[in-house]
Amino acid sequence: MDANDEARHHPGEQHAEGTGQKLNWLRAGVLGANDGIVSTAGVVIGVAGATPHNSTAIATAGIAALVAGAFSMAGGEYVSVSTQRDTEKALIAKEKWELENLPVEEHEELADLYHQRGLSEPLAHRVADELMAKDALAAHAEMELGIDPDNYTNPWAAAGSSFVSFTVGALIPLIVILLPFGSYRIWITAAAVIMGLFLTGWISATLGGAARGRAVIRNILMGSATMVATYIIGMVFGTAVS
User: Fold this and answer.
1) Structure pTM?
2) How far apart are CA 110 and CA 128, in angstroms?
3) Low-confidence ranges of the chain (pLDDT < 50)
4) Tell me: the pLDDT tens digits for 18-64?
């Protein structure tokens, strides 16, 4: 391999198409797990505050929160991504029509876009010529719309990812609070939740290129506030009922 080949292929560098989309799905999965941790922890700790010795009530509430939350997130993600997919298809259909009926104008538009990116006008026209000769629709879809016409967003994959990630996150507080820790179950559950929030905050910040420490602290504070609020409400409600 010569120097030019080495320059084109850096070890460890990702060149695969869709890398940005994969990172977005991964980040969404981490956030789904985070939602599962916080929402389910809030429910089980709230119920434990009201009925600390009633494991059946805690388990029932926790499982209900897990199932409802997982289906709600999956359904919301399916609807959202389906709308995005429909929009992408409509834009591609419009682009196809323009290429069939306004080929000269579309060529000039593509060349102008490359010219705006910094290419000289003659080079921009040559690039437009070659790309449109190879795959005019793909060239315009990528440059104008940022869409791959052969790879639309998948609503079922988004829904499945959200369902699984929420469920995995929700299982952390649900399992821990049902373990035989006696009077320490709430404290140990809170500790497990904080560890989970530390992990999801760290991963989401890393994927997004943000400051990890700030993201982790913010994540833990919001989750802790949720647990404290629901525990106090549970205690007050439990005392009032009893």
Assistant:
1) 0.76
2) 6
3) 1-17, 242
4) 555 666 667 778 888 999 999 999 999 999 999 988 999 999 999 99
Residue 1: alpha-carbon gap to chain centroid: 39
17, 148 in Cβ contact below 8 A? yes
Report the pLDDT value the prediction gives residue 240, as an integer from 0 to 100. 55
Q: Do 233 and 45 touch, CB atoms closer than 8 A?
A: no
Residue 9, classed as helix, strand or coil, is: coil
